[in-house]
Amino acid sequence: MIACATAMLWQPAAAQEATDSPAATTPAAADSLTTVVYPDNAGEEPVLEGLLTGDTLKAVKVKRDWNTWRPNPKRAMWLAIALPGAGQIYNRKYWKLPIFYGGIVGCAYAWRWNNMMYHDYSKAYMDIMDDDPSTASYNDFLHLGQVITDSNVEEWASKFKKRKDRYRRWRDMSVFVLIGVYALSVIDAYVDATLSDFDISDDLSLRVAPSVMIDKTSADPLKSSGLGLQCSLSF
Prior knowledge:
By secondary structure, the protein is of the alpha+beta class. It folds into three domains: 3-59, no CATH class; 74-197; 205-230, no CATH class. It has five helices and six strands, in the order βαβββααααββ. Helix 2 runs antiparallel to helix 5 and helix 4 (97-129) packs antiparallel against helix 5.
């Protein structure tokens, strides 16, 4: 919560008329209202928010410093749950939006295509298994010159059943992948906001360099030293 302190300077006009000094002929100072905004963090300087002179308000905008701004992990998570990609927008990671939206659109298209093929092959399988000659939607799947006869009807029925089951399995899989992409966007928004203040400066480094290792317990100078690698972690 931002705390405000208000200071008002006001001089009545009647007091100016009652005096005979030369200062009385000078116009009185206009009504003024100054608002000072004190930031939440202690030790920071207060900021002038606005100056009211008469009936005119001259606002002084306080711009946010995006270099020091850090996102709230819980807010990023709830935004990502409410709308896919909203958490990435809140974290200002716009380059991730095509990845998640591309995955969502791709899964939705895969579900629609597999669902359509599943219904088509299901109808063809039911038509080939019944005894009604007027239901022959399976002919739409036959290549030119192919005919279903009594000798190969069981073979074609097995093909239609396998294709029906295959497209149903792919349709269900596309739904699970879509849920996975949605969950991944939520996890990414929360983790990205949590690690936004993680120190990745040059002081955090792992250095590997060759070194000479000396064994002080050996009396032979040729056997007391050897070459090796030295690892140093700075943080």
